[in-house]
Amino acid sequence: MDPFLAAALEEARLGLAEGGIPIGSVLVIDGQIAGRGHNRRVQQGSAVLHAEMDALENAGRLTAADYARSTLYSTLSPCDMCSGAALLYGVPRVVVGENRTFQGPEDYVRSRGVELEIVDDPECVELMRRFIAEKPELWNEDIGV
Amino acid sequence: MDPFLAAALEEARLGLAEGGIPIGSVLVIDGQIAGRGHNRRVQQGSAVLHAEMDALENAGRLTAADYARSTLYSTLSPCDMCSGAALLYGVPRVVVGENRTFQGPEDYVRSRGVELEIVDDPECVELMRRFIAEKPELWNEDIGV
């Protein structure tokens, strides 16, 4: 597995071990992880810290020039909010572990010029399938359903 | 002025007084403010707490049924990230103080079924015009330019 997707998956598993929603993300700039994170809905009662948002937040304040060289990795297809964050900051490339259990606005994101790569990784799929089966209400809350 | 837009403007001024970016927001449910907030880039070094995100975060964990009855007020046209957050949670109506100094993806948001009302309030315009003239680099950082 791509080492950065592996790092995002490690974040997802950390979140699961904390009793949280198992989605992880890393922001990579110039081949280095600039920020890593996982969904914090349960842990911090957060409505905005999805994994991608947590990774962006942990990367801190960056310039447009920094984001222009970045790739955002997520174990799951980014939702409207997280896709919007990538668009705001001009992240040119997003690598997605899987989009079988949930699919964000991928066509729209591509139409705005972002390169979106879907890895379709079986470990990412299995992690989410099990979580959704076990905690469907928590999952629905997280994606606004 | 609409009392909820006035509350958002009050938040924007609080942010300015803290040395921050003067954008404020409130989330209203059933005629009551469920969460209020302002941009926290300077104050918390935050890349994700735009005003609307801060208001959503301060409203805490809500259900889809709660968001379905909500209106999000912002002193400024919501950016890609904040618009995406409204879409994620199915906020049906967004009231915007002004969109002269910055315009988010309004057509897209409308195409997704959200009612977007632009108030074009002169106080909101003046607050942002002055801020952008005084701190253009901070403003550009906040909108990813």
From TrEMBL, chains A, B:
<keyword id="KW-0963">Cytoplasm</keyword>
<keyword id="KW-0862">Zinc</keyword>
<dbReference type="GO" id="GO:0008835">
    <property type="term" value="F:diaminohydroxyphosphoribosylaminopyrimidine deaminase activity"/>
</dbReference>
<comment type="subunit">
    <text>Homodimer.</text>
</comment>
<keyword id="KW-0479">Metal-binding</keyword>
<feature type="domain" description="CMP/dCMP-type deaminase">
    <location>
        <begin position="1"/>
        <end position="116"/>
    </location>
</feature>
<dbReference type="GO" id="GO:0055086">
    <property type="term" value="P:nucleobase-containing small molecule metabolic process"/>
</dbReference>
<dbReference type="InterPro" id="IPR002125">
    <property type="entry name" value="CMP_dCMP_dom"/>
</dbReference>
<dbReference type="Pfam" id="PF00383">
    <property type="entry name" value="dCMP_cyt_deam_1"/>
</dbReference>
<dbReference type="GO" id="GO:0072527">
    <property type="term" value="P:pyrimidine-containing compound metabolic process"/>
</dbReference>
<dbReference type="GO" id="GO:0052717">
    <property type="term" value="F:tRNA-specific adenosine-34 deaminase activity"/>
</dbReference>
<dbReference type="GO" id="GO:0046872">
    <property type="term" value="F:metal ion binding"/>
</dbReference>
<dbReference type="GO" id="GO:0005737">
    <property type="term" value="C:cytoplasm"/>
</dbReference>
<dbReference type="InterPro" id="IPR016193">
    <property type="entry name" value="Cytidine_deaminase-like"/>
</dbReference>
<comment type="pathway">
    <text>Pyrimidine metabolism.</text>
</comment>
<protein>
    <submittedName>
        <fullName>tRNA-specific adenosine deaminase</fullName>
        <ecNumber>3.5.4.33</ecNumber>
    </submittedName>
</protein>
<keyword id="KW-0378">Hydrolase</keyword>
